[in-house]
Design a protein that fits this description.
Protein name: Universal stress protein
Largest sheet: 5 strands, parallel
Family: Belongs to the universal stress protein A family.
Distance between the termini: 35 Å
Strand content: 15-25%
InterPro entries: Rossmann-like_a/b/a_fold, Universal_stress_UspA, UspA
Radius of gyration: 14 Å
Organism: Cellulomonas xiejunii
Pfam family, one: Usp
Oligomer: single chain
Length: about 130
């Protein structure tokens, strides 16, 4: 089985990555790190650079975690993560979350909520210790 993590190069993504690595090690499963963008912005700071990817690979190797990193451009990030989790038969999908105001949710929707409702496997939502956005 495989643990899938939705990763972004920020505090939320790091928290999700660390937790997913622990889950993969504890259950002796592979880890699939997914970093996706919609490609609609000229610069998407949630889409990892090659330096970010190298740093994550080194961290996971130092922990002894077997991992693959997949970067994707998708119309809908939530749909992409759920589809990838289904594709690999994930045992767990780990995501980083942040606080969002009710107005923010109304205007922009919640990717985390759509993942929680759409995933066929268990979803673990992780908050960064000092998550920005509050």
């Amino acid at each position: 089985m495989t643990v899938v993590v939705g990763w972004t190069p920020d505090a939320r993504g790091h928290a999700a990555l660390v937790r997913s690595a622990r889950e993969a090690l504890a259950h002796r499963e592979d880890l699939l790190v997914v970093n996706a963008t919609t490609g609609t912005a000229a610069v998407d700071d949630r889409f990892a650079s090659s330096a970010d990817v190298s740093e994550v690979q080194a961290m996971l190797e130092s922990l002894g975690v077997e991992a693959q990193i997949r970067q994707a451009v998708a119309r809908d990030i939530a749909e992409e993560l759920v589809a990838i989790a289904d594709e690999v038969g994930a045992s767990l999908l780990v995501i980083g979350i942040r606080h969002r105001s009710p107005v923010g949710k109304l205007l922009l929707g919640s990717t985390a909520q759509r993942i929680l409702l759409g995933a066929q496997c268990p979803v673990l939502a992780v908050k960064a210790p000092d998550a920005p956005g509050r």
